[in-house]
Specification:
Layout lengths: L2 H10 L4 E6 L4 E9 L2 E9 L3 E2 L9 E2 L1 H4 L2
Antiparallel strand pairs: 1-2, 2-3, 4-5
Length: about 70
């Protein structure tokens, strides 16, 4: 399935936040549902940063854990 098709399904089902994780590029793209059928790009995080990402921004996430093998 294509990326757009997946996010359209998530929006239809009311998923408020989407993280697109690419372990090869070591990126996390963050989107928030701002209308019934549209996500707004919120930012991209990459590498081994420690980040706070909606909706779990109360806790710092160490991205290096996602890329560990």
């Amino acid at each position: 399935m294509l990326r757009h098709e997946n996010t359209a399904i998530y929006a239809r089902e009311g998923v408020r936040h989407v993280w697109l994780v690419d372990p090869m590029e070591q990126t996390v793209e963050v989107f928030r549902l701002d209308s019934p059928d549209r996500y707004t790009f919120f930012g991209v995080h990459h590498g081994n940063a420690r980040v706070r990402v909606e909706p779990f921004d109360a806790v710092a996430l160490d991205l290096a854990i996602l890329w560990a093998r």
